User: What shape does this take?
Amino acid sequence: MCETKARLDGKVAIVTGGSSGIGLEAAKNLASRGARIIIASRNETKLIMAKDHIQNATGNSDIAYGILDLASLSSVRSFARNTINNEPRLDILIDNAGAVILPDRLTEDGLNLTMQVNYFGAFLLTYLLLPLLKKSSPSRIIIGTAASMYFGSIDFDHWNDIGRYSWVESLANSKLADALLAVELSRRLQDTGVTANSYDPFIVRDTDILLNVPGWASTIAAPLISLIGQPKEDVGKQLAYLAAEPELYNISGFNYKFCSKWLNHWWATDAEFTEKLWEESKKAVNITTAEDWEAQTD
Assistant: This one.
């Protein structure tokens, strides 16, 4: 499953959440295929350690990192600006970073913290990097989601409310938005050479997924994760397959699990709703006139 012999020499890939877990495993796999890798997260110490680890494990010295705090839109904008200024191309964007059981509060940007870390930050980063991805086509966008999306809902009048959703609901809502973003991206990027798909990593062992879980719940969940969870190396391989496999070069708008097309949310077929998600997301992250490449190309 998920085996590909594809090489990526001369290609550039960004992996958010690339300093640990499945993001690190995906970055290693892509680096072993010859790609220039840019890993992104908010912890510079972990990024430096991950960069050294990837170089030592793969023999690929073309590894870079960038500070990216999805809870800060200014940080997202800074990372995107540095990428555009310093990278002549971008072939692969893996929006992998995310978190569970975050505090129920607003960020400095006035957005629900879980929604921003899991969705709005990825939306803004992807939007800002799309001109570079289109210039580098054929290129690919891969967005992480989760099975919790099937229980999610999106109410544009209340998606940033505090005190309205449990942590499970907030996670489900954010992951649903991620899945629908991939569908809307696919629709908008037709005939550009850029594809967009989402992926569900299922349950993964040996990651920090339980980092914010209360002690009693973590004690209960840990044995279950160990029993049924996938090794993080396998999920990294699945991500690399979606990013590199030549047969997927023009496949777009699907949700993947275990390297196979998987059931998407029923709202994925509602083009009117996914279009509204796009427009409301632009408003939420305050896309400026200078950033709005859509308006500039109309």
Summary: The chain has one domain: 12-289.
